[in-house]
Prior knowledge:
Structural class: mainly alpha
Order of helices and strands: HHHHHHHH
Largest sheet: none
Amino acid sequence: xxxxxxxxxxxxxxxxxxxxxxxxxxxxxxxxxxxxxxxxxxxxxxxxxxxxxxxxxxxxxxxxxxxxxxxxxxxxxxxxxxxxxxxxxxxxxxxxxxxxxxxxxxxxxxxxxxxxxxxxxxxxxxxxxxxxxxxxxxxxxxxxxxxxxxxxxxxxxxxxxxxxxxxxxxxxxxxxxxxxxxxxxxxxxxxxxxxxxxxxxxxxxxxxxxxxxxxxxxxxxxxxxxxxxxxxxxxxxxxxxxxxxxxxxxxxxxxxxxxxxxxxxxx
Length: 267
């Protein structure tokens, strides 16, 4: 999240709404140079009135293809996300989003369209969050490999109660975040251990729910957003979901801007 730009209102356009649908977690922190994460669930800043006009039609960018009957299974050693290789490959270069990340966001969206169709989550929302949180797993010199894992672990700042940072003592013995004193946000979607414990998912069928795996993290985020926001195809639902992920309107506006851009470029 950036605090170096003046607050501004942004039109709630048809493209913008579809771009939203955010991911999951009581997001602990934001990414900054040198270390991931700045603040844990910051209090909302900026205006409290609705930022965008209500009743905008949903639009999530280029539509996802239909997935097969085995959409939730690993088949012949291929993760289910690979079913979206063609769709993802057609957008990856245009959007500057790794193909593996596009597959993760697309698959999570397709799963939620089946599990919770009334949520109306979009892949552009997940992509907006992934970009803000870790540049799609490429934060601080990392690269997202073909299995949707960053080549360098992505960890947030210690949540030690310093100014602007929430105090969250270690809750996992350092198993997820490597810190036995304070909790830290983990992985491309920046889950804190307590949130991952509640929402962690095994999206690629490898038998493990891992916040460092963007396939898993994107699905967990999608479920969290839908549970928090309800209908993400509405202004109120979208803002409720994203502000549960991180309680800052500047953060949510940044996600909106990026999701809107992905929606526009994908068309």
